[in-house]
Amino acid sequence: MFYTTDQNRHGLAHDPFKAIVSPRPIGWIGSKGRDGTLNLAPYSFFNAVSDRPKLVMFSSSGRKDSYRNASETGEFTCNFVSRNLIDKMNMSSAAVAYDVDEFALSGLTPKKGELVDAPYVAQAFAVLECKVTEIIEPKSLNGEPSENVMIFGQVVGIHIDEAILRDGRIDMGLARPVARLGYMDYSESSDVFELFRPKA
Rounded mean pLDDT of 35-39? Predict the structure, then answer.
């Protein structure tokens, strides 16, 4: 089958776009408002975009609480979503009022960052502390703004639980990272294999 996205006539029960661009890491973003309000929310449009410097990006559909806090304070955290925390991550996705603390709602412990004044999930196996570098409003081919806004952050500090370290590496079989697929589907990446690049 083939279809053009301007008409989006795929004839399927659900739009397959996000299922094709998968698996995607989950950006579990911790932030703090100017008034001290704590926020925790998962984003399925999230990824690392650079290693030197270490940059990550999450994309918010509309100007949600994470965007508001990160844009106002310039800081946020990215929390590693492992299989044992999936239910708590899902709970933190509930659409609640700005003054509702998703850490408390999900039964998680917030900890203040070492280098940023933003909370992170104490139970997470790994955490990235980030400072905002830029915010971009993507545009379509005809120049119209997307409904999304992209927040880029430079990683200034990294927490790792030594329980998931083996032989100087993070053992993904122990960490059991969860990825976002399409629709309401998720996957767990504990079936790990190595594949080395071929030599020219």
Answer: 95
